[in-house]
Q: What sequence folds into this?
């Protein structure tokens, strides 16, 4: 039984295995595969230390965790999933859950272009804003601080699935890094 993991000891593992309510234990290999294939449902910010330790031990045993994310239907019917950056070590997220829009020039400019002036937004809202308004973003003039912030958002929430035009639902190739 030492190769088996008690599912209820790990809240994110229980959440991603919601469709198996009677399942009490899982092999380490199966846990690794479930984390990889349903990573989009894991909230890194809410992981407890013991679950981070479990995930890191699975990474050490089976290799980098390559998360899978669902894409928008408009991206491709033939490719409903995209792969995220391989995770070689999971670390807790220590930055605040809310940010000042003005601290990130590209985000701020985009928000102002659309007649909004939110002083603060959540990181999730920032990730969604970048995704839905990618056509406003100019990577060539983006500050290193904002690139780092965007990189952290991709780590926490998955790839940016960029909207390419304000007038269509066309979505570009997933952005895994900036």
A:
């Amino acid at each position: 039984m030492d190769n088996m993991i008690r599912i209820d000891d790990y809240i994110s593992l229980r959440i991603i295995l919601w469709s198996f309510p009677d399942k009490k234990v899982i092999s380490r290999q199966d846990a690794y595969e479930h984390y990889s294939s349903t990573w989009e449902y894991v909230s890194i910010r809410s992981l407890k230390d013991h679950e981070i330790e479990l995930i890191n031990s699975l990474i050490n045993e089976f290799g980098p965790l390559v998360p899978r994310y669902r894409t928008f239907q408009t991206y491709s019917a033939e490719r409903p999933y995209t792969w995220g950056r391989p995770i070689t070590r999971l670390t807790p997220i220590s930055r605040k859950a809310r940010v000042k829009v003005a601290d990130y020039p590209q985000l701020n400019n985009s928000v102002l272009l659309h007649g909004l002036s939110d002083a603060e937004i959540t990181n999730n809202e920032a990730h969604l804003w970048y995704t839905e308004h990618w056509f406003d973003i100019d990577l060539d003039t983006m500050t290193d601080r904002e690139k780092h912030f965007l990189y952290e958002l991709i780590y926490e929430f998955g790839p940016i699935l960029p909207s390419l035009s304000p007038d269509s639902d066309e979505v570009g190739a997933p952005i895994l890094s900036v």
